[in-house]
Amino acid sequence: MIAAIGLVLGIVAGLFLEPTVPTWLQPYLPIAVVAALDAVFGGLRALLDGIFDDRVFVVSFVANVLVAALIVYLGDQLGVGSQLSTGVVVVLGIRIFSNTAAIRRHLFSA
Amino acid sequence: MVLLTNLVEDSLDQGYARAAARRAAGEPASRSGPVFLGVGLLAVGLLLATAAVQTRERASATAEARQVLTAEIDDRSAANERLERQLERDRSAVSAARRASLRITAEGTRLARSLTLLESATGAAAVVGPGMLVRLEDAPDDPADADADPRTDDVTQGRVGDRDLQTVVNEIWAAGAEAVAVNEQRLTALSAIRAAGEAILVDFRPINPPYEVHAIGPDDMRTRFVEGFGGSYLQVLRDYGIEFDVQPDDEVRLPASAGVAIRYAVSPSAVRSEGSGSGRPAAEEQRETQP
Question: Residue A10: its chain B contacts at CB < 8 A?
Fold first, then answer.
């Protein structure tokens, strides 16, 4: 319950407060979103598997976002930023897909 | 392949399985509580919403910037036109004053007459007279070509190019024209018809189709143009779908050229004796090679 309220509150706060993202952080936002989605779908799948753990979820979310941003930052410094972000998106994309596939199997048993 | 297989099979964070194993082993579950999860999800929501807002803002910022630039272009074009009209007014005032002061002496009257002739010949003054109009228009868009990549050469086949316009104008001069203007832009001896990308520039100003070449000249100018190389060139253009027509016009009005700049040629020796080499690298270099 508190979890759902937290999610809704976060979305509402983001939409209405419109926090300004500093310019130097803007390139990492899309990657952070993909990483967050990966953590969210992973958590959802764990929930359906019956092994959800809130600590693991929060830690994996924070770590995912930070590591993804760090990789892209490193890539930018090395001059291969776009290639590395492509890599991050591919890896996280595959994970999101297989997690949603597992969720689908749980929900529709198909 | 191992990498991909790993990715697909290990898609769930192993932390979940370990935590479950720990719980199964009887360890007390991490009692960080639902508040912890709530805060985590709040962060997730905040991130997603911020990204959404950011994306939307960026799109609108791009559109705004484009609008600002378009408005600025319109503004500057209008200012340009205003200045041009002002220039024309000032010029006619100057020539009226000049005529008035030259009229005082007989020598001046003669000078004024030759000045008028020279001004019409060089394009410094507006002129009126009988002549003709040559209209050129791009081939109508072939619907089959509409999807084609505009960067490939095929699409430009039916378009009037700078070469075409150059040829037509040169042939009109050759047919005896005394004054020529392309889309209301008077040509002088120093005018250039060029292309920049897709646009044709006359004296560095872009012009749009249809291209109208007005010319003032003797009565036989039109027949000489049509029966000469110009006419056959236009026939060839017609094969590419470019439409043209040549009409006589009893009263052609051509404006003065906006770009009549007076330049003075200076001989290098004069520059050297003057001793001011600034802005004249050729003269300067020459001086340096002579110790």
Answer: 41-49
Do A62 and B38 lie within an 8 Å CB cutoff?
no
Report CB contact under 8 Å: A7, B44: yes
Do residue B8 and residue A98 have CB atoms under 8 angstroms apart?
yes
- The count of residues in chain A is 110
- Cα separation, A31 vs A94, in Å, equals 14
Instruction: Report d(CA A90, CA A68) in Å as an integer.
Output: 12
Predicted pLDDT of residue B32 = 61
Q: What's the CA gap between A9 and B131, in Å, rounded?
A: 78
The closest alpha carbon to B157, from B138, B137, B174, B173, belongs to B138
Q: Sheet holding B205-207: strands in order across? A: B193-196, B199-202, B205-207
The per-residue b/e assignment along B35-57, b for 16 or more CB within 10 angstroms, e otherwise, is ebbbbbbbbbbbbbbbbebbeee
| Residues lower than pLDDT 50 in chain B | 143-146, 148, 150-153, 275-291
- Secondary structure class of A70 (helix, strand, coil): helix
Burial (CB count <10 Å: 0-12, 13-18, 19+), residue B10: exposed
Q: Does B37 touch chain A (CB under 8 A)?
A: yes
In this complex, is the C-beta atom of B33 within 8 Å of any C-beta atom belonging to chain A?
yes
Q: How many CB pairs under 8 A join A and B?
A: 147
Cβ atoms A18, A48 nearer than 8 A: no
Closest Cβ–Cβ partner in B11, B15, B38 for A60: B15
> Nearest Cα to B54, choosing from A21, A82, A48?
A21
Q: What is the pLDDT of residues A59-90, one digit of tens each?
A: 888 888 898 888 888 888 898 888 888 888 88
Exposed (0-12), middle (13-18) or buried (19+): which is B195, by Cβ within 10 Å? Answer: middle
Query: In this predicted complex, what is the ipTM?
Result: 0.82
Q: Is this structure's pTM higher than 0.90?
A: no
